[in-house]
Each structure stands twice: as structure tokens, then as C-alpha cells.
Design brief:
Layout (H helix, E strand, L loop, with lengths): L2 E5 L2 E3 L5 E8 L2 E12 L6 E7 L4 E3 L7 E6 L4 E6 L8 E12 L2 E7 L3 E5 L2
Length: 121
């Protein structure tokens, strides 16, 4: 089955940086978009950044200029470089992929297990 494995979360001081990774496993033909959502305690899950297969990117206003999403299509992997982190960035970050076509089947959407990012002094 196609699965997402993400890593890179942890505890960081305000102003610090972290880099998240998410790899999609399986015999994959194509993925329309890969991105990152985040969910803070007591809040709804929200989009942080997304990247299409052809490299178009979209960022939430709250992270624009501080976060950078990138991808390696050959490895079916995306990264989220987070700089100048703020306390309000504290959340569980979830990898998300859309419109996956693989030997195992077609998947409209898949989610990673989530990785916790805590920004605190």
C-alpha cells in the first residue's frame, strides 16, 4: 500500500529552524500535489504549504516568507524548511498527498502520521 512517513519534528527555540521530511512509499506513477497541514491544540487543521508536481507552491499567509516547501519527484519526497519559528507555529504537522496513481491503486488523498513541532524558550 502507499504510505506516508514523515519526520523532523522536535523542540526548538523561537527564531530557530527545523526541516520536516515526508516520503511516499510504493510503486507510484504520479502525485498531483504534496503538502503540509498543521493542527495546534484546540484548533482546526489548516494548510501550511503545498507543492504541485510541476513545482507550483502555495503558502498560508502566517508562514509566508519563513517556510519553504520543496520536493524531489524522483523520490516522491517533500520537505518543509521552517525558519524564524514562532511560538504560534507550535502544532502537529501532517504530510498530505492528493490524487495519487500507483500500482496499488488510485488514492484521492492520504495523510501521514503527524510530527510534533514545539516552539518554546
Amino acid at each position: 500500500q502507499v504510505q506516508l512517513v514523515e519526520s523532523g519534528g522536535g523542540l526548538v527555540q523561537p527564531g530557530g529552524s527545523l526541516r520536516l521530511s515526508c516520503a511516499a512509499s510504493g510503486s507510484i506513477f504520479s502525485i498531483a500535489a504534496m503538502g503540509w497541514y498543521r493542527q495546534a491544540p484546540g484548533k482546526e487543521r489548516e494548510l501550511a504549504a503545498v507543492s504541485t508536481r510541476i513545482g507550483l507552491t502555495t503558502y498560508a499567509d502566517s508562514v509566508k516568507g519563513r517556510f519553504t516547501i520543496s520536493r524531489d519527484n524522483a523520490k516522491n519526497t517533500i520537505y518543509l524548511q521552517m525558519n524564524s519559528l514562532k511560538a504560534e507555529d507550535t502544532a502537529v504537522y501532517y504530510c498530505n498527498v492528493r490524487d495519487v496513481v500507483a500500482v496499488q491503486g488510485r488514492y484521492p488523498e492520504l495523510w501521514g502520521q503527524g510530527t510534533l513541532v514545539t516552539v518554546s524558550s
